[in-house]
Amino acid sequence: MKVCVWGTFDFFHKGHKSLIDKAISTAGKDGFVYIGLATGDLIKNKNILYTFDERKKSIEKHLREKDFLKKAKIVPIENKYGLTLIEDYDAIVVSPETEKIAREINIKRKENGKSPLKIVKIPYVLSQDKKPISSTRIKKGVIKKNGEIISED
Fold first, then answer.
1. 131 φ/ψ angles, rounded to the nearest 5 degrees
2. How many CB atoms lie within 10 A of CB 116?
3. Would you list the domain boundaries of the chain?
């Protein structure tokens, strides 16, 4: 199965790992995962602290640890649809935050005569305080990348 997933992956954290792990399991033994890494206008006003190369290296490290480096490709994307309107994927893995975009993608794919993608949604990965782990909360110094509490919101 050909699976795609995308994000900014700034402060590569436990939630990002969960998203990629789900893409890996969805692809299956003989499948392939395309990881869209946001760049350009897509991150222009988002206060991204890490460069494209730094974020890419974090993802590659995780893929290496999962022994999946040869079964995935990291591609730069400059808009919220990435390559999903052009390429033929079977599924897209999303979080609750990005599910709406996946639905938009399927509408646009149908309009363009392409088959819709299977949408695989994972739940938020929660920190110790039962709130979603996010790069924003990590940047604020509220939680660590693994969800451990540092201070109150």
1. -105, 155
2. 14
3. 2-125
